[in-house]
Amino acid sequence: MGDTGMDTDVVIAGAGPTGLMLACELRLAGADVVVVERLTERTGESRAGGMHSRTLEVLDQRGVLDRFLAVGELQPVGHFSGLWLDFDESESRHPYPLMILQSAIERLLEEWAAELGVRVRWSSGVSGIRQDEAGVEVELGTADAAPAQLRARYLVGCDGGRSTVRKLSGIDFPGTPATMTALIGDVELPDLPEEYVWARRCPGGDFSAIAFEAGWHRVITSEYDRVPDRDEPATFEQLRESLVRLAGTDFGMRGPRWISRFGDAARQAAQYRDGRVLLAGDAAHIHFPAGGQGLNLGVQDAVNLGWKLASVVRGRAPESLLDTYHAERHPVGERVLHNTRAQAALARPGVQMDALRDVFGSLIVFDDVNRYLRGMLTALDIRYPVGCDHPLAGRRVPDADLKTPDGATGVHELLHTARPLLLDLRGSTEVATAAEGWTDRVDLVEARSEDDHWPVPAGGDIPAPTALLIRPDGHVAWAAAAGGAPDTTTLRTALTTWFGPASQG
Predict the structure, then answer these.
(1) Is 273 helix (H, G, I), strand (E, B) or coil?
(2) Cα(275)–Cα(169) distance, rounded to whole angstroms?
(3) What backbone phi and psi angles, to 5 degrees, belong to 327?
(4) What is the CATH number of the domain that holds 258?
(5) Where is the FAD-binding domain (predicted)?
(6) 416-460, pLDDT tens digit by residue?
(7) One domain, residues 411 and 429
(8) Which among 243, 259, 277, 436 counts the fewest CB atoms within 10 Å?
(9) 136: DSSP letter
(10) Which of 207, 206, 211 is nearest to 188 (CA)?
(11) Residue partners of 103: CB distance under 8 A and separation at least 6
């Protein structure tokens, strides 16, 4: 840090999956970071219970996916409002969802963060924010009532749907209110028949019972047109009574670990950045947890923001690079709110909705419909506007098999360092010459593709590119098509846009 008046480069509010992933990304890129969390310790609650393909790819890009695979269980199933989807193994090296509790995800991310030197301060909630031209003063309310302050270049609110950072920054949170309530808890269900898993629709709503761990079930009940006060506590008895109303029995429910409540309110921050304050995860967007997209959306926010924020903090890129975070991620969040509203509506009880579900279910069996919904839920089909017209530009890079002078590898393995990657698949001197001013921050690797064609979700197979510039988040910033010389003018433009001006000398 160049400014000795700074306590750290970045303060992150919130030690959930989004905040921890962002902290790891910042440390990998060389930025100093402190995570502050208002809780005194982990609660053990696990609202989320899985990770989709794109999140698994992101963890693979960093070389830590095996830790998560060792704890969770891959399941070749997914759904859109309870209507089953098929997955395509050709679209990703990790096509299936990983069933893993949020508590386990947080534990593994916290262990990784500690290895990278991330500092986490518990019992430290944000209570005040003051920005100036050089940084942001973050006031903390601590457990012993003694106020504390941290000065940083930037503050990122990853502090959940009721984000204090968002409120103190005055960022609007428009959207739609809840129309239903759902109760969720991890309990024992000794009388549950083996076939009772996933969702069952009932006249008054629906319920599901999912076995994440031996002897324990995640029970969720959803009832419509009753919205309690958001501060009303959720109790075990409320969950039991709701299950009885829907299923006619409580299946011997006992021994709750925790109980909570959620609804179908859908809101999104009007802007993801206000000067030196940024938002990510639930602080930037809340929605009905249909299709298991929430945690994944937040982790992918973090991976999009981390390298950009570190580049600005370290003086390698102009501050305007941070504007691309909102430009790229706000539309993605908006799409998730849109599809979860649709799923919540499709889940409502009634004979008219039953008929609509029958029609919708008959459409899902068509490959194009299944592919469209699958790409949306897994986030494999995201394409950012990067200013290049190659079919791969803006998309996440496939984990293609490569041969390098050092041996066989894959694209994801080359991204373990979280650095920009310029991959030359033809050995052209033009690419290396064009990148000479960026070799201090961009890795140039010469390799050969093992395959003549690369898969693009929702786009089919395309001829393997001859060269491509890959951002640290795994999205392609520039690519050269097979045949002809690469356009080095557009390559230099992409290098400047995403990684700052060329070094002199």
Answers:
(1) strand
(2) 10
(3) -60, -35
(4) 3.30.70.2450
(5) 7-339
(6) 999 999 999 988 789 999 999 999 999 999 999 999 999 888 778
(7) yes
(8) 436
(9) E
(10) 211
(11) 42, 44, 45, 46
